[in-house]
């Protein structure tokens, strides 16, 4: 049995160790330095807080590759110098080669040219990825020419989404049907709640806010202007989906709600920041791209079965595909200025035939 003196000494020793350890931890784990940016009127809590160390890591991960060295013009279009050029035929032949080299580094630096081209003959349409690449080039030109309300003069390139990978890191497919929930003996439709999906910040909200809003055109606005019965006909489930989409926005851009909204009146556009208008156009741009460029690649058989989702749909984009956690993709750096042929001035006919696998038979 421990004596009273020994017990007192033991308690003193434990307390001393705890104090020393606490002091040591205080020097070891320090709160990261933060930067606060005011975005609205003072006193309305419209500011963004950033951990400086996080921003430094993001900048390191979002370095823009150096542009390809310029080449002297060939003096003839690529369609005259090469066979089977269906999208960039008006581009100077040497500039065409420069762009092809850049695209290889942006999309398939390990696989090289044969990721899209037949090794037997680069002109052949023997690889499905070549057909996809043509359509993606048209999509890129379409964004830069027709969606300036969202991308401004910065524009996008293949690198904006791909970042050196054949398939962008942030894509999504339609979710398959799930079994209904049984709650208190009542059957309720399962809307993908309580799955802790990383898409929505591991919350209990619906795990697929993309199908209704970024592919379909469901109503996103669910906040009533008055707290009175009959002024808002939206259901709680619809609100859940909207909040799931808002969390996706926040995670995709690395910001909080006040980047676009004044939290005292989320619904009021007059009290919102200009970024809310930019986001409004962004939602519609993503719908356009999913429905007119990406979904058809699954429906028309361009993508093989192994590249489709469980419901047979092609991979689609959301805000994360371009932004990747940053309020502006690549922190606003523009790569289009170095490749004007894929910018707004290089827009081509979006209805032009891009071909299909093995449809080119002129092998002269």
Summarize the structure.
The chain is mostly helical.
Describe the structure.
It is a single chain. The chain has helices at 4-28, 52-61, 78-81, 93-107, 128-146, 148-151, 158-162, 210-215, 236-253, 274-299, 319-323; strands spanning 34-38, 47-51, 181-183, 186-188. 27% of the residues are buried. It is mostly helical and 364 residues long. The strands form two sheets. Strands 1-2 form a two-stranded antiparallel sheet. Strands 3-4 form a two-stranded antiparallel sheet. The longest helix is centred in the last third of the chain and has 26 residues, at 274-299. It is globular and about 80 Å long. It has eleven helices and four strands; from the N terminus they run αββααααααββαααα. β1 (34-38) and β2 form a beta hairpin. It folds into two domains: 55-164 and 335-364, Photosynthetic Reaction Center, subunit C, domain 2; 170-323, Photosynthetic Reaction Center, subunit C, domain 2, CATH 1.10.468.10.
Using brief descriptors, characterize the structure shown:
364 residues; mainly alpha; Photosynthetic Reaction Center, subunit C, domain 2; two-stranded antiparallel ribbon; 11 helices; 4% strand
Q: C-alpha Rg, in Å? A: 27 Å
Q: Quickly give the structural class.
A: mainly alpha
CATH class descriptor of the largest domain: Mainly Alpha
Biggest beta sheet attributes: 2 strands, antiparallel
Cross-sheet strand order for the largest sheet: 1-2
Q: How many DSSP helices? A: 11
Strand content: under 5%
Number of domains: 2
Instruction: Write the CATH homologous superfamily of the largest domain.
Output: Photosynthetic Reaction Center, subunit C, domain 2
Mean pLDDT: 85
The counted number of beta strands is 4
Low-confidence stretches: none
Head-to-tail CA distance between termini: 100 Å
As a percent range, the share of helical residues equals 25-40%
Would you list the SSEs in sequence order as H and E? Answer: HEEHHHHHHEEHHHH
Annotated CATH architecture of the largest domain: Orthogonal Bundle
CATH topology type of the largest domain: Photosynthetic Reaction Center, subunit C, domain 2
The coarse silhouette is globular
């Amino acid at each position: 049995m421990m004596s009273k003196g020994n017990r007192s000494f033991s308690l003193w020793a434990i307390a001393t160790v705890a104090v020393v350890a606490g002091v040591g931890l205080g020097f070891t784990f320090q709160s990261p330095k933060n930067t606060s940016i005011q975005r609205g009127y003072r006193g309305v809590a419209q500011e963004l807080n950033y951990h400086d160390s996080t921003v430094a890591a993001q900048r390191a991960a979002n370095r823009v590759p150096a542009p390809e060295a310029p080449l002297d013009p060939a003096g003839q279009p690529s369609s005259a110098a090469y066979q089977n050029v269906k999208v960039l035929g008006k581009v100077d032949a040497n500039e065409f080669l420069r762009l092809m080299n850049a695209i290889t580094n942006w999309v398939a630096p390990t696989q090289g040219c044969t990721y899209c081209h037949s090794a037997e003959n680069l002109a052949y349409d023997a690889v499905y990825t070549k057909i996809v690449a043509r359509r993606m080039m048209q999509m890129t030109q379409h964004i830069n020419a027709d969606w300036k309300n969202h991308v401004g003069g910065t524009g996008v390139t293949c690198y904006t989404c791909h970042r050196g990978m054949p398939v962008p890191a942030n894509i999504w497919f339609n979710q398959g049907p799930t079994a209904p929930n049984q709650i208190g003996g009542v059957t309720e439709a399962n809307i993908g709640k309580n799955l802790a999906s990383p898409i929505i910040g591991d919350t209990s909200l619906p795990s697929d806010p993309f199908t209704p809003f970024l592919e379909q055109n469901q109503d996103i606005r669910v906040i009533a202007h008055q707290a009175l019965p009959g002024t808002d006909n939206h259901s709680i489930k619809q609100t859940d989906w909207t909040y799931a989409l808002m969390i996706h926005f926040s995670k995709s851009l690395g910001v909080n709600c006040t980047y676009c909204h004044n939290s005292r009146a989320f619904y009021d556009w007059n009290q919102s920041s200009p970024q809310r208008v930019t986001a409004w156009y962004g939602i519609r741009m993503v719908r356009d791209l999913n429905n007119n460029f990406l979904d058809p690649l699954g429906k028309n058989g361009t993508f093989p079965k192994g590249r489709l989702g469980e419901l047979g749909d092609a991979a689609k984009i959301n805000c994360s595909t371009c932004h990747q956690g940053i309020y502006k993709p690549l922190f606003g750096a523009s790569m289009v200025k170095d490749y004007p042929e894929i910018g707004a001035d290089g827009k081509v006919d979006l209805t032009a035939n891009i071909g299909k696998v093995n449809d080119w038979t002129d092998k002269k």
